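Researcher: We're teaching a course module on how sequence relates to structure. For the next exercise, students receive a sequence and then see the predicted structure as C-alpha cells, so they can try to spot secondary structure elements on their own. Here is the exercise chain.
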Amino acid sequence: MTNLAKPILERGAWHELDAAARDDLTTRGINNIIDPQLRESVLTIIEDVRDNGDAALVRALAKFDKCEIAPENIKVSAEEFAAARAAIKPELLTAIRDSIAHVRRFNEKLMEHGNWMFETAPGVFVGEKATPIESAGLFVPSGKGSYPSVLIQLATPAVVAGVKKIAVVVPPVAGEGGRVDDAVLVVASELGITDVFRVNGPAGIAALAFGTETIPKVRKVCGPGSPPVASAQIEVQRFGTCAVMLLGPSESLILADDSADVVFLAADLLNEAEHGPDSSSVFVTDSQELLDKVQAEVARQVEDLPEPRRSYALSSLGVNGGAVLVRDMIEGAEVANAYAAEHMQLVTRQEDAILELLVDVGEILLGQETTISMGNFVLGIPASLPTSGYAKVSSGITADAFRKRTAIAKSTRAGLTTMSDTVLAFTEHEGFPAHGNAVRKRLEASAAASGAASTPSAAS
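Model: And here is the predicted structure for the students to work with:
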C-alpha cells in the first residue's frame, strides 16, 4: 500500500523554489540522455553497425534482446504480415483504422498549405514549393509493451507527406524468439509499408543512418524511445542523418484551478505516469485545497494499477514529477512554459486568457473531456511530441516533419531595377564586386537598350 503519511506529489510553491529546485523539475531526463557513459556505450554500437552492417545487428539482438536470428530474417516476411492480420482482434483492427483516419485527416489539412507565391514589390514575386523528403526511418519502441499507436503517429504523416521510401525498425517482443508485435505489423500493412525490420533500438537507429546489407539508408530518423535510443539519434546526426529531437521519455503537465474534478485530475495525472520509471507527471494549481484532495485521490487510484505500471507511476509522480503550487493561474502559465511539457491539459475558468499565455508546450488539451489518452490514440493531432524541454524549439511529428520547403523567386527587369540600390549598397559594404556586377551589367544593358530605342535612325 502507498504510504499516505508522505504525499506522492511533492515539490512546493513555485515562488519559494530556488533556482536549483526549479532546474531539477524542468530539466528532467535530459541529463540521462547525455550521460557520458551512456554516450560511449551507444557509440560502440553505432560504430559496430557502421563497420559491420547486418552482423552487428544480429550481435545487438543477441546481446540486448536475447534473440538469436539469422541476417536473412532481419526483415519481416510477407508470411508474418499475413499471420499478424489473422491474429489481432477485430475490435483492435477497427481501432487502428479509426486512429489512422483521424491522423490522416489532420495531416491532409496541413497539406492544403503547400506551395504559395505573392508579389512582394512591383515585378518581384516570392514564394515556396513544398516537397517530401526522399526517405524516412521510423523507430517504434517495444521494451515495455506494444505500441501500434506510435507507428500510426509516425507513419501516417510520412505517407500523407508523400515520402517514397519508409523503413520501420522495431525491437522484437521480449522472450518470443524474434517475433514482431502483430498490431504494429497490421498498422504498417494498412499504410502500405512493407519494409519492417526487427532490430535492437540503438542498433536500429544506426542501421537507418548508415544502411546495411538489409536495411536501407534514410535521410531522416524519428521515433520515441529510451535514453539509449534518444542518445543514438543524437549521435547519428554527426554523420549526416537528420533526427527529430527528442521524443521521449513521456511526460505531462496539468494546470488546473478549483473548477476541476478531483477524480478526473488524478486519473489524468496517472495517464502518462504509467509509461515508465523515467516518465514525468506534474500537477500545477493555484488551490491548496485542490492539491490536498488530488494528493489523496492519486494515492487511491495508483493502488488500482497493476505492476509494473504502479511502480512506474510512483516514480513518475514522486521522483521525476510532483505538484507545484502557484499564486495564480498566470504564474501557473509561467511554470508550464518553463517546463515545456510534451502533453499538457488545461482546466480553468479562464481558458481563453491562460491559453493565450501558453507558448512552450507540445500539445494543449482543453478541459477535462479532452483526455491525454484521446490525444495519444484518436484525436488525430500529433502525439509523437518533443520532450525534455524541446517543445521550446520544436513541434510534434506531422506531415511537415517529412517535407522540406524550397524558396522560389521571379523578378522582371523593372523589379531588378527597383531593388538594385539595395543590392549595390550591400555588395559595396561587404566587398563582393561580382555580386554587384551581376546587377550592374543588367542596368547597363537596360540603359543601352533604352538609349538605342530613343536615337533616330539614319534613314529618318
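Model: If you want an answer key for the exercise: The chain has three domains: 12-27+249-380, 36-247+400-405, 412-453. The two ends are 110 Å apart (CA to CA).
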